[in-house]
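1st attempt posting a full record on here, be nice pls
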Amino acid sequence: MPPALAYALVATDLDGTLLRGDDTLSERSLAALARVAAAGARHLVVTGRPAPRVRPLLDALGTTGLAVCGQGAQVYDAGTNRLLWSVTLDRELAEVALGKIEAEVGEVYAAVDQDGVDGLTLIEPGYRMPNPALPSVRVGRREELWSKPISKVLLRHPVLSDDDLAAAARGVVGSLATVTMSGPGIVELQPCGITKATGLALAAEYLGLSREHALAFGDMPNDVPMFRWAAHGVAMANAHPELKAVADEITLSNEDDGVAVVLERLFGGPGERTGPYVRRQGLDRGPVETQ
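the predicted structure (as C-alpha cells):
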C-alpha cells in the first residue's frame, strides 16, 4: 500500500459508509477527517444523494468545497451553493426505460430527483422512501414526475429483490440509461454512461488531483466504478458482495466507524496504536486478516 502522504484525495460515500444508520456522523469520524485535512489531503463526499439532500451533511462536516452528488451527475460547490457541472436524464428516455422495465417485471413504483440546487424528490403513489428522514413530495400521477428536468429515477418493485430488479432493468434498458443499485431499496436510472467515477474524476480535475493519489470508501455496487478509478478502494464490512469482490481492503462497518479506522491508520490517531481489524486483498493469495 502507498504511504499515507500518497493519498491526496479521500473520497467517501455517505449512506452505509461514512454515516451511521441514524444519518449521523460520529465524533471519531469527524476527528479522522480533520486529521486528513491537517495533513493537506482533500476529502470529497461522493454520494447518490442529490445536492439539496447533501447540504446539511456538508455543513456538519464543515465542507465549503466540492462534493460529487446524484451518483456522479452533479459536481456541487458548497461554498457558493451552485452546481459546477450537471447532467440530466432525458425525461422521454426515462419514460421509455420505465415502460421496458415494467413490460419485463410488471408494475414498479418510481420517484425522481429533480436537477438543480433547489430540486425536489418527487414520489409517485406506491413508492416508499428507503430513508424516510429525507424530504420528498408525493405526486398524484406518474406524469407529474416529469414536470422539470431530472438527474435520476429511483425504482422499487413490490416483490423482486434489489439485485433481481437491477439485473432485469439492465437486461432491457440498454443505452437508454445507466442502471445502478446504491442501497437497500434503491435501484436507479442514471444518464447513460454517468457513474460516481465520472463526477469524481471531474471534481479531481477541478482540484488538480489525480486518481493515482485517490483513496475511496463505499458499500454498494454503485461504488464499483469509483473503486476502479481510485488507487485504493476500501469496502465496509456491511458492503454488498459485488463491491467487496473488487475492493483492495475491507474495514469495519459504518456503525463501527470503519472509515475512521482506516484513516487513523494512514493519517494518525487512536487506531494506529490499537491495530483495528481490516482485511486486505493479497496479490497472489486470498484475503488476509490482520490485527
